[in-house]
Amino acid sequence: MSAVGHYLEDEGIPSVGISLVREHSQKMRPPRALWVPFMLGRPLGTPDAPDFQRQVLRAALELLEAPDGPVVLRDFPHDAPATVDPQAHTEGMACPLASHAPAPDPSTAAGLRDALRAEVAQLAPWHDLAVRRRGASAFGLGGQSIEALAERLCEVLAQLEAGAPDAPPPIATGALKLACDDLRTYVEEAASAQPGGRDPDAVRAWIFERSVAGRLLLRLRAQAQRSADPALRALGASGLVPRAVRS
Amino acid sequence: MARLEDLSPWERDHLTQLAERAPRMPSEPWAIGPALARRRVAIVSTAGLHRRGDRPFASGGNDYRVIPGDTPASELVMSHVSVNFDRTGFRSDPNVVFPIDRLRELQAAGVVGSVADHHYAFMGAPFPPTTFEPKARELAGLLHRDRVDAAVLIPV
Predict the structure, then answer these.
(1) N or C terminus: which one in chain B shows less Cβ crowding within 10 Å?
(2) Residue B109 — left, alpha, or beta (φ > 0 → left; ψ -120 to 50 → alpha)?
(3) Which member of A31, A43, A174 has the closest CB to residue B58?
(4) Is the residue at A80 inside a domain?
């Protein structure tokens, strides 16, 4: 971001950036930056907090009138307000999702497919609710329905697990990346609609520690990492599962 | 949360290494403009955002996508290749990443003069960030044509 600001400014466009990592801005010295003490992924602080977001944006824009440049780096003085989740107080759950249905054995290919089908069906009403609340969904990058996508990813995993590391990948790397991101988007959106589901750490922990979707992603990562195909191996190394889960 | 001391050791080490490897820019340009209340503002994001149906970003890509100013925030999707930052906030409220509604509110309140016809999004993963130079300079020409005299740069 700092580099983009540098080049825009060099071409005569005044710029101001929000900085999420102060040390990066100190090193790269963009023309104007407002450092904010917010979570990576939330440069305006907190979702559904319009007053706070407006305060952050205005503080950044006002640096355009700072007379003491070049290189203005200021600190935003407030932490992001906590995400409000009124349902969490009445129905609060440590885990945003819980199932009491008997689960198929996901250690087999057929069992994993059946378990994922069941999980997707269980999540569907929550995803519907999430879409109604937002008025839209970020799901759908790959253009497939969640059901078709889940089936396809299970097929890909079965093919990877049955094949040798030097076998040609059963899916283009880019398509696999979009499908995996779509699966995670669907599950995250559904989880976020549940009571207590707006804590990003809790949602991530649930996905990768307890959900079938997370188990599928972890197994896909393992298979991608053993592939002889460089692009697939690179995707497995850093593009399917957050580093926080891997460490 | 983005204070390095608050992060997990692996994330702190990763971001520290990136800061150490980041290039020093060769100059310190400084462009000025009129009072904020007369500025025309465009958002430039590096969150890998685009409208549904646009080409997703691909690994290593340093190009940008165009987001028309009348695009509802709810029509935005994100195809950033990184899986290491929170996306639940964006899923709930795109303005936490791309504050187009907040910018319109500031215009209505007279804080800024006008909102640009087009906004832009890169995907901020390529390293070193100097690889953005050709596309960023190209983008500057487009912003000039849109009479933009304030770009607000939003990372993710």
Answers:
(1) N
(2) alpha
(3) A174
(4) no
Give chain A positions within 8 Å (CB) of B136: 3-4, 7-8
In a domain, A83, yes or no: no
DSSP state for residue B144 in the 8-state scheme: H
| Residue B145 in contact with partner chain A when CB distance is under 8 A | no
| Assembly ipTM | 0.94
Q: Residue A16, SS3?
A: strand
How far does the CA of residue B116 sit from the closest CA of chain A (Å)?
Answer: 13
Chain B residue numbers with beta carbons less than 8 Å from the beta carbon of A80 are 1
Query: Are B46 and B156 spatial neighbours (Cβ–Cβ below 8 Å)?
Result: yes
Nearest CA in chain A to B56: A141
A167 and A54 in a common domain: no
A82 occurs within a structural domain: no
* Contact map slice: A 34-73 vs B, CB within 8 A: 36-50, 53-54, 56-58, 60-62, 64-65, 69-71
Which domain covers residue A116, as residue numbers? 88-246
Characterize A155-166 residue by residue with b for buried, 16 or more Cβ atoms within 10 angstroms of its Cβ, and e for exposed: ebbbebeeeeee
Residue whose pair of structure tokens reads 């087999």 in the numeric block? A108
Query: Kindly report the CA angle at A188 between B67 and B11, in degrees rounded to 5?
Result: 85
Q: Does B133 touch chain A (CB under 8 A)?
A: yes
Does residue B21 sit at the A interface (CB-CB below 8 Å)? no
Query: Scanning the structure block, which residue is given the tokens 């059946």?
Result: A114
In chain B, domain spans: 37-154
Placement of tokens 């490897």 in the chain: B21
- pLDDT per residue as tens digits for the range A232-246: 999 999 899 998 886
Specify the amino acid at residue A226. R
A119, A180: one domain: yes
User: Does A161 reach chain B within 8 Å, measured CB to CB?
Assistant: no
For residues A61 and A138, state if they share a domain. Answer: no
pLDDT in tens, B58-114: 887 789 999 999 998 778 999 998 888 999 899 889 999 999 999 999 999 999 999
